[in-house]
Amino acid sequence: MTSRTSTTGRTGTTGTTAAGNGTSVPSPDPGVGPLLRDWRERRRVSQLELALRAGSSARHISFVETGRARPSEEMVLRLAEHLDVPVRERNALLLVAGYAPHYPETPLDDPALDALRAGLERLIQGYEPYPALVVNATYDVVAANRGIAMLLEGVPESLLAPPLNAMRLTLHPRGLAPRIRNLPEWRGHLFAQMEREIALHRSAPLRALYDEVAAYPVPEDRHGGEPAGPVPHFALPMRIEHDGRILSFISSIATFNTPMDVTVAELAVETFHPADPETAKYLHSHTS
Q1: If you write DSSP's letter for every residue of 182-223 in order, what string do you get?
Q2: Are 266 and 246 in contact (CB under 8 A)?
Q3: What pLDDT, on the 0 to 100 scale, is given for residue 203?
Q4: Mean pLDDT for the chain?
Q5: DSSP conformational letter for 140
Q6: For residue 3, is pLDDT > 70?
Q7: What is the DSSP letter of 180?
Q8: Which residues pair with 141 in a beta bridge?
């Protein structure tokens, strides 16, 4: 049910391991240099190009990466910014370099985030009758509107117990999976998305979630290869059955620009837009 794409995204790589809470922590003595080099190579940026972006020299970047020079806290943050390193991983780089984390990780229920939560609720409620939800870094649902509740009608209570997880709800054989008419394509899309996230975020919980949902049995095709119907050329739709009707959605993701908090950086708002007039008409009539 979710399709997550972000320039700051999230299989394992050398240099760090993941703690049980999803926070990346350094492996024994890797040094910050090799980790910065790993991020630079991931971004396909040369030492010279990175130096020009960061106002440094290729020689100094080389010295930092090989451990011949210890970067200042400001330099670690500057290089991480120009390499588009996720906020959580920037804290990990600082720890390895011997500095304190720079970005806080405020619990979502903290009063300091009251305005943020209220804004997100207004946003997804304003999107009704179309489905919209907010997920965190491991696809746990932190907010959802009535459009999502409609799609979840008939899902067993055992799967709706908190914390709700968008991937489990979508791919579980007793969840939405049996009702998704183009399940092979949508399932493959979701796995590819999670793989991209795992490649960026060294998160043990995210890897565990991937392994769990990948092991779910795929429901039998009850529709005998029913034609998919017209498909938008600009995006893969999710075609799902609801109360005997086939609804078609395309999804989009919104994340926060320049987040200064780990929790906020890892939130994403996913909205599902009708891919055809029939779906839009059905949703409006169903909620009127």
Answers
A1: THHHHHHHHHHHHHHHHHH---HHHHHHHHHHHTSPPPP-TT
A2: no
A3: 81
A4: 87
A5: B
A6: no
A7: B
A8: 135
Residue 265 · residue 205 · CB < 8 Å:
no
Q: Which residues pair with 249 in a beta bridge?
A: 238, 274
Within the chain, what is the greatest distance between any pair of CA atoms? 67
> Domains along the chain?
24-97 (1.10.260.40), 111-287 (3.30.450.180)
The residue behind tokens 């395309």 is: 250
Residue 116 has pLDDT above 70, yes or no: yes
Specify the pairing of strand 245-254 against strand 238-242.
antiparallel
Give pLDDT tens digits for 35-70.
Answer: 999 999 999 999 999 999 999 999 999 999 999 999
Tell me if the pTM is above 0.85. Answer: no
* Residue 214 backbone dihedrals phi, psi, to 5 degrees: -70, -25
Beta carbons of 142 and 135 less than 8 angstroms apart: yes
At 147, list the tokens: 């459009």
Q: Which backbone phi and psi does 44 adopt, to 5 degrees?
A: 55, 50
> Phi/psi at 197 (nearest 5 deg)?
-65, -45
Q: What percent of the chain has pLDDT over 90?
A: 75
Query: How far apart, in whole angstroms, are the C-alpha atoms of residue 52 and residue 60?
Result: 11
| CA dihedral sign of residues 68, 71, 75, 80 | positive
Task: Encode pLDDT of 203-261 as tens digits.
Answer: 889 999 999 999 999 887 655 545 555 555 678 999 999 999 999 999 999 999 878 99
Is the pLDDT at 21 greater than 90, yes or no? no
